[in-house]
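task queued by scheduler; priority normal; single chain, no ligands, no partner chains; default sampling; output format set to structure tokens
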Amino acid sequence: MTKLFARFVKDESGATAIEYGLIAALISVALITGATTLGGALNNTFSNVATQMGKGVTASTPTP
């Protein structure tokens, strides 16, 4: 019985799996945060481009 308990205490495979899981979770959070920030910046950029193109179309439209 003591050998079984000693082997259980020395086994670190579960701790290693938990560490890898935590690392994967942190990487996922970082990727989601970066994608959200990048998506917002791209949305603003394309909105500005669309606004400027709209101004150009109305400015170059000939009046009858």
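post-processing summary
- The two ends are 99 Å apart (CA to CA).
- The longest helix spans residues 13-60.
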